[in-house]
Amino acid sequence: DGGITQSPKYLFRKEGQNVTLSCEQNLNHDAMYWYRQDPGQGLRLIYYSQIVNDFQKGDIAEGYSVSREKKESFPLTVTSAQKNPTAFYLCASSMWGELFFGEGSRLTVL
Amino acid sequence: DQQVKQNSPSLSVQEGRISILNCDYTNSMFDYFLWYKKYPAEGPTFLISISSIKDKNEDGRFTVFLNKSAKHLSLHIVPSQPGDSAVYFCAASQAGTALIFGKGTTLSVSS
């Protein structure tokens, strides 16, 4: 089945720890994105990548890092510098405009 | 500064009636607009889109209207069904850039 797979679905982290969220797609899409959803905030763009080995900061990139070594993969690292990391994280990919989303990963910092 | 605004956080409609969800934008360079539907703890799913060269696009019970002069678009759902209850996000982009999303409107359809 073609689609976007995010893992883990649920993740707990202690303060001060980095954590990496996985995002894999087999849709052969060039562009991939990371959004964060908070109650009442909608979806806010963290990072996006339009091609392998290239990525750009979104509106709320501080405290996050990404890599795009393969077309299929766009992992997001939530670093200890991110002041409020507890949120629902959504990965997406696209070829022409329309985004296809994964199921999301819920990160809770204890 | 929000470029895409959904000013109604919530909307309640009776089953069988029309649901109208509204969205305003500020960037006149946006040329592609989309609506997504989202259930709790799931990723958003694409509903319908419209490009700036059109003023209406219809897909079954869903119709999107675009008023470029007013920088306004709306999603009409007719007839509304209980399964339509979800959060609806409006999104916009200009060529080559990432989608910008509104904050969402929670639609509740009662039977």
List descriptors.
heterodimer; A: 110 residues; mainly beta; 7-stranded mixed β-sheet; 4-stranded antiparallel β-sheet; 11 strands; 0% helix; 53% strand; B: 111 residues; 6-stranded mixed β-sheet; 5-stranded antiparallel β-sheet
Order of helices and strands of chain A: EEEEEEEEEEE
Helix-and-strand structural type of chain B:
mainly beta
Oligomer status: heterodimer
- Globular, elongated, flat, extended or rod-shaped: what is the shape of chain B? globular
**How many β strands of chain B by DSSP?**
11
How many H/I helical runs of chain B?
0
Q: Evaluate the radius of gyration of chain B.
A: 13 Å
Major sheet of chain B, described briefly?
Answer: 6 strands, mixed
Number of helices of chain A: 0
Q: Helicity level of chain B, as a percent range?
A: under 10%
Average pLDDT reading of chain A: 92
User: How far from one another are the termini of chain B?
Assistant: 38 Å
Q: In percent, how much strand structure appears in the residues of chain A?
A: over 45%
Order of helices and strands of chain B: EEEEEEEEEEE
What does this structure look like?
The complex is a heterodimer of chains A (110) and B (111). By secondary structure, chain A is mainly β. Chain A is built from no helices and eleven strands. In chain A, strand 4 and strand 5 (42-51) form a beta hairpin. The radius of gyration of chain A is 13 Å and the shape is globular. The termini of chain A are far apart. The model of chain A has no long low-confidence stretch (mean pLDDT 92). The radius of gyration of chain B is 13 Å and the shape is globular. Chain B has strands at 4-5, 10-14, 19-25, 32-38, 45-51, 56-59, 62-67, 72-77, 86-93, 100-101, 105-110. In chain B, a hairpin with a 2-residue loop joins strand 6 (56-59) and strand 7 (62-67). Chain B has 111 residues and is mainly β. The A-B interface holds A 4, 6, 31, 33, 35, 40-45, 48, 50, 58, 88, 90, 92, 97-104, 106 and B 6, 9, 32, 34, 36, 41-46, 49, 89, 91, 93, 96, 98-104.
